[in-house]
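Appendix B.2, paired examples.
Example (i):
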Amino acid sequence: MKQSLALALLVVISGAGNVCAAQTNALSAGLQSDYKTIRDYFIRAAEKMPEENYSFKPSPDVRTFGQQVAHVADDQYNLCSPVKGEVRQGAYRQIENSLSKKSDLVAALKAAFAYCDGAYGALTDANSADSVKGQTRTRFGMLNWNLWHTWEHYGNIVVYLRMKGLVPPSSEPAHQ
């Protein structure tokens, strides 16, 4: 009986420890979840737009759809490399200035998000207030900036998709 009670108590304590661990990273976990959502929406949107519409822009004074994709890919490196303690190996607008084909841009976008996955994956509530070398923002601040910047440009490409008669990923029915 005492062994059963001790085992039950151990199970309860272990479960409580897991809950506490999850709660201690509530801020970073929320940011990571939001990042994964926009990452997946953006990639799906890039895949959804037909190749012939990658040169489309609704007005002469804005980026083409392809340039929007390239810009977001560039900024995954530009904003996540300092958080990772690294220096970007390419120019600030390397992707935007060198790629225009859908297949190249989708591949570059996926690679850029995969690079940023590591920065978000390493974020915890405990290290979120750490300074980022050469920046005025913290780790959390830099990654949050990247998050809202990506959402901002997703809003741009939603308009492009709609103008071409396509439903953006965030408006598609949920998979059941």
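Example (ii):
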Amino acid sequence: MTELAGSVAVVTGAADGSGRAIAERLAAEGADVLAADIDVHGGEETLTRIGAAGGRARFVRADMRVPADVEALVAAAGPLRVLVNNAGGGGHVAPHFPDAAPADWGAALDLNLRGAMLATQLALEPMRRTGGGAIVNVASTAGLGLAPYRSPEYAAAKAGLIRFTSTLASLRKRYGVRVNCVVPDWIATDRAHDELEQMAAAERAAAGPLVPMADVTAAVIAFVHDDTLAGRVVLLRGGRPRRFLT
């Protein structure tokens, strides 16, 4: 088990949604949270919420598509113990591959995969120096299966993040760091509820139940605390129990 009291935990994409919820939960568990996002206003709101609940948090503006920002974020963390690579998105913004320009679909790969890979690489040595730690990647069911998907670049990035995680089980022996991945279906964010309301009844029914935010945070925290699950990937679907894929 990992004791979080006084440990530094970095959460990317922490200005709203699942990232904010994860940051709040880690702070409630006693971690000193470093919240990162490009949305400064949302990041400050996250700090306010954590502070009001008695937690400790800082904010760093960081664009996970920019290597210098990722490097500065990890350096600012200090004695890092937990990293949650939650930043992502772009799957709902058109146009997509092949209609999008290479720079546009490349940015989706940078945000959803390369940024997490770089943050993971940079975090390993700081975590080793603190006695080990936990890295949790947040992917998406867009990265599973063989069905068509509206945003090929987003789906490919999330598929890559899942496989990237499963290849890193051996890092626990070398660095004392375990890497895991949470793969949620559509999460019950405000935006998701708004999009559901705009759907036709048949389309809404086909979408299935949303994944409660509490299920996502619980899955992340479970990986942070359990040091026996290196390299494991867990699937979250609305209305169903969590299921390990590896």
